[in-house]
Amino acid sequence: MSEIFKKRTLEFQERMRETGIDVMLLMDPDSIYYFTAFWGDLGVEFGRPSIVVIPRNDEPIVITSSIEGEMCRRMTWISQINLYHDSVGKEWIDPLEKILATYKNKKIAIVPNKVPSLVLNYFYKINWLDKFLNGENILSLQRMIKSPEEIAHLRQAGQVATAMTDAAKTVIKEGVSEYEIAIAIQEGGTRKAAEIIKSEDVTSLMSPVIHNLQSIQSGAHTTMGHLHPTVRQLKRGDPVFLCFCANCHFKQLKIGYDRQYYVGEISDEHARIYEIAVEAQQASIKEMKPGVTAEQVNAASDEVYKSHDMGFCYRTGRAVGYSSLEKPELKKGDKTILSAGMVFAVDGGVTIPDKFGARIGDTILVTENGSECITEYPRNEPVIKG
């Protein structure tokens, strides 16, 4: 597995040489994992940032807290790990200062919108912000096209997502609270993720546990796109929206996936709005293939909404991978040309203010001849009886 991360790093170093960047500093967990295989959830929020230094010609360096030292050594292929300690010297600033001194006359790049405020404030104090180059473009370009290994793992994430849906459908009925659906989803997803991991490597340090708060709404709550589950109890005829985007993560990859169901029955009005949401999503997916632009995909769903006398609300989708939001975005103005290997979360959605909403979402892989749905699950059976 370490060979995959080494290969990514070597490819990125070649991009750095082509663009004249001498060293890249990465500080967001997604990019750190992408190159090093090291990840952790409780870093910068606790005042302990991790930083990866990628020189154009030499082996990368990981700077991280001593409390993460053993985990980092077990996870990463990188041999140069600089540990700092709480209350010793200037903590994380000490190793970072050495790096900046080493490369002070070189071209150093960062991804500005991915620098934690803690580190950003330090750069501001030492007047370094204007000295950095913006490395966002070369990083985004590399991560746009998914490797065969990433695509295989994304398909596994799709299996976890559909297992979560199966689990939700077993508990959706009158009288059940929204939070109880969330519990079932977490258990169903975790069990599927564990099944996959155990079949590959029982010594893996990758956790199968689905733990992030998810968006689940019912009834009039479905007008609030990302409301977390409450204690509200389901009523007959209620729409129930399941948004898995925040918690359907597997092997650090994030996908987009939404389904909507109705408790016992569906009214004509609800059915009409739900069908429009599905129609809009499917129109965009049909448009997806190499050579079309991101905004063309968005325009396909916009035309559906317009044909039903509905206004535009939000983008049709976004690229996903190791981050929940990557480039390009399926929205007006994004003229990025789609290529095989790009992966997107593609949505359809309609909200009737103060009444209800209907949404649908899937993860779509652009292929040589069109597209493939990674999260394929029935959309034409929205009523759950029982």
Topology:
Blueprint: H1 2-19, E1 23-26, H2 29-36, E2 51-55, E3 61-65, H3 69-75, E4 80-84, H4 93-102, E5 108-110, H5 117-125, E6 133-134, H6 136-144, H7 148-171, H8 178-200, E7 215-218, E8 239-243, E9 249-250, E10 253-254, E11 258-263, H9 268-287, H10 294-307, E12 317-319, E13 326-330, E14 343-352, E15 356-366, E16 371-373, E17 383-384
Parallel strand pairs: 1-5, 3-4, 5-6, 11-17
Antiparallel strand pairs: 1-2, 2-3, 7-8, 8-11, 9-10, 12-13, 12-14, 14-15, 15-16
What can you tell me about this protein's structure?
- This protein is of the alpha+beta class and 386 residues long.
- The chain folds into 2 domains: 2-144, Creatine Amidinohydrolase, Chain A, domain 1, CATH 3.40.350.10; 148-384, Alpha-Beta Complex (Creatine Amidinohydrolase).
- The protein is built from 10 helices and 17 strands.
- The chain has helices spanning 2-19, 29-36, 69-75, 93-102, 117-125, 136-144, 148-171, 178-200, 268-287, 294-307, and strands at 23-26, 51-55, 61-65, 80-84, 108-110, 133-134, 215-218, 239-243, 249-250, 253-254, 258-263, 317-319, 326-330, 343-352, 356-366, 371-373, 383-384.
- The strands form 4 sheets. Strands 4-3-2-1-5-6 form a 6-stranded mixed beta sheet, sandwiched between helices. A 5-stranded antiparallel beta sheet has the order 13-12-14-15-16.
- β14 and β15 (356-366) form a beta hairpin.
- α9 runs antiparallel to α10.
- The longest helix is centred in the middle third of the chain and has 24 residues, at 148-171.
- It is globular, with a radius of gyration of 23 Å.
- The protein starts with a helix and ends with a strand.
- The relative contact order is 0.11.
